[in-house]
Amino acid sequence: MINRNMIEKIVEEVVKNLMAAHPASNPKTKHNLLVVGDLEKMEPELLSLLEAEWNLISYSFTEDAELHKAMKVIFLDASQDLFVKGALGICDTPESELLASCILEYVPVTLIPKNNLYKILIGEKKTNQEYRSQLLEYQEKLLKFGVQIDRLETFAKLECKNSNATETKKLITQRDVQDSAMNEIIVGKQTIITPLARDAARELGKSITVLETKGAEKSCKWEQ
Question: Which of 36, 148, 186, 223 pairs as cysteine with 110 (C-beta 3.0–4.6 A)?
Fold first, then answer.
């Protein structure tokens, strides 16, 4: 019988030896983050964190969104209107149409709710509990669609941490998947993903995104 854990350990050791013999020298590649909202209202510290990891593209609804060029999309100050419409699949505003497109095209998207809405969702603000329960059901639907919901501070810091961790990784193991705080693990095309890592991703409901470079444009495919 094949011992998969033993094979994974052997692969990890081989890759480590190869990396030691041929250390990486390529600079970190920054990918496109499409930002829906006013960047000027963002705290300078958080803006700097995001700019260090991403090429920030401020989206204007007067233009067509080129989602194939964006690695991720983030909606700043997402309103309750957008929150509910996203969960119900209603597309009657430019924002809700863009959110629906992200979901349909499997583009990773994060909603940063308005402060009042976020406090209601986490139970920090006292409110009508029946109404809050309905909002939580909408939140659950969005999560099932692959939409992340978070504070901007948490998003920026986790993106920074995750980017630093995966950019230099040449091997993704079961432990890497289990320890990752992100539901989406981004790796380079040359990164080795062990079978146990793929199994762990499926079991934990996480995805492994493999970046591919084609000319000047970047594309990605999802490993399920």
Answer: 148
